[in-house]
Amino acid sequence: MAKKDEFEPLIVAFCCNWCSYAGADLAGTSRLEYPTNVRIIRVMCSGRVDPIFVLEAFRLGADGVLLTGCHPGDCHYIDGNLKAEMRARYIRACLEEVGLEPERFRLEWVSASEGVRFAELIKEFTETIKRLGPSPLRRREHGGE
Amino acid sequence: MEENELRARLRAAREAFSSERVRWLLGRSRHVAEVGKLTPEEAKELITNILKEELERGRILSELKENGPLTVPELSERTGLPKQRLMWHLICMMKDGRVAIWGKKGDFYAFSAAKR
Amino acid sequence: MEPAVLVLGGGIAGIQAALDVAEQNVHVYLVERSPSIGGHMAMLDKTFPTLDCSLCILTPKMVDVARHPNVELLTYSEVIDLKRANPGFKVKVLKRARYVDESKCTGCGICTKHCPIEAPDEFNMGLSPRRAIYIPFPQAVPKVAVIDYERCIRCGLCQLACEAGAIDFKQKDQELELQVGAIIVATGFRQADVSALSEYGYGRYPNVITALELERLLNAAGPTAGELLRPSDGKAPKRIAFIQCVGSRDVRLNRPYCSRVCCMYAVKNAILIKEHHPEADVTIYFIDIRAYGKGFEEFVQRAEGEFGIKLVRGRVARLEEDSSTGDLWLAAEDVSSGKVVMERYDLVVLSAGLVPPEGSEALAKLLGLSTDGYGFFSGPNLKLNPVLAQDGIFICGCAAGPKDIPDSVAEASAAAMEAVNYLREVGLL
User: Fold this and answer.
1) Is the ipTM of this complex over 0.90?
2) Class assignment of domain C4-96+173-189+356-425?
3) Could you report the per-residue pLDDT of C83-94, keeping only the tens digit for each?
């Protein structure tokens, strides 16, 4: 149906300054194409991201939230990304309890040299969210159920 | 799920993740995982059980913050939680200093979010 | 054989006995099963008939006994074996592991804030939470945290938080061997289990509570900061009924005796409710009002005259809950009018009787003590020597039968005197 085909997910991505943001930047300078649905928020470290940020993003209407950081062992602040990994478990458990699909949140490691990987990740995640459909908070806008 | 219900639950989740109990557990999770005597399954169960409880309490808190002092029957209508469970949560939150008895609304005692 | 006395039980009777023996320059072991001394008196709000604040008069004695140079306090401990040594006794005491080092713990309580596990607080009759690591109550003696090992998940968060490094999961139970010349049994009582009386619906109807639960609700340090909220929905109860002799003077339950204190504590509780809520309608349904002690009769008169508390002579047949409101319908006979009354109440308080504490039977066997058929300890000549149980073993307080605080204290001092005399008799002093 026409209306449903028009669903363009709103995705918020928290990207750590040293690795994943640089990776996103590399994707840009390499002129790689990826969907424009993502809004990137640069943080100094994935460990800066409080679970509350993710929950607020969903509360304010995000269809999907991505958290990207350095590969384990490469964190500029030693173990910030490990903290992010621990928090991701709580976030997923919380989303399940609240009634949102846990697949709407993802944690991925992207290094500064992985421009291609970043673009692929965005493409893939956007597809996933398209399949899941709009967040229940935005269903009205999309002629929802 | 109904839009307003999800919004209320996400507000509750924000309260839950602001609670001392969750934040301490969250902050020390790596220590618990590495040094504590819990297996990964036990750790997951612990997180889920505590989140469940704190989400209910977060719901109560956010209702109180949004709607002012409320009685137990009023809270029961808004949150869908049974009254006795509400009483237990309220007493627990009184002990932590998150909630206080505000006064009476008619014949019923009303609770309010405590000022920090 | 040491010239020492073992006091079993750290309630007001045990504390008094220990103090009196210690003042005679005799060494005392005060063994208490729970993590803190204080007993039931520590849970009360005000005491009859003076309306003294219970903890205010108890805590000085708790501190005195803990600090006394002749007293060795063994809390979270139990007697597990006993042999006569002629003279005296050889006693094995199990000192249970708190998993907290008593010498390091400062009682700051930070550990309790970090523990993620909640459990019903026994001190508040299960009406409020405590954590798996907890300090029994703010005035606890010793003020040392204890870990409820069954609920503890060994997450280690308390250990991380403790700045004194007092948490020790490797701690083990200890067995101590004591030599004592005499024993004073002051093991107290337990509130009768009133769920057995199905006609009152305790356990099924949330707004039917026991006297001790009311005591904690009224207490400013209790679950609701002293506000009387009824358990089902937080309503401020306007009409409250007390039912007397629940679990006492009851042949069905094999408890035909009178528990002695319930008439007075019910009147006291009724007065406390009226002091908080003068507009409340409070009625006590009784068989008799037993106001036998000093100031008791005047106290009851004051309750009726000054506070407007209604006293109705008549047994309550049953309680029925109106499930939509949680209110209770009470059916009773009013002996004065000869009619059966059906009244609606917001909250009903059962004045539960006093029964021997858990483990009394086993303790009686271990010590070779006789009991009175209801589990209270007895002796060869209760009329002229109410505190003598056996050669070298003395009883006092509610362990010997229900009684109020002044009587418990008096018996404790008597038992202390006899214990010290006994030590002289057998040549230990």
Assistant:
1) yes
2) alpha beta
3) 999 999 999 999
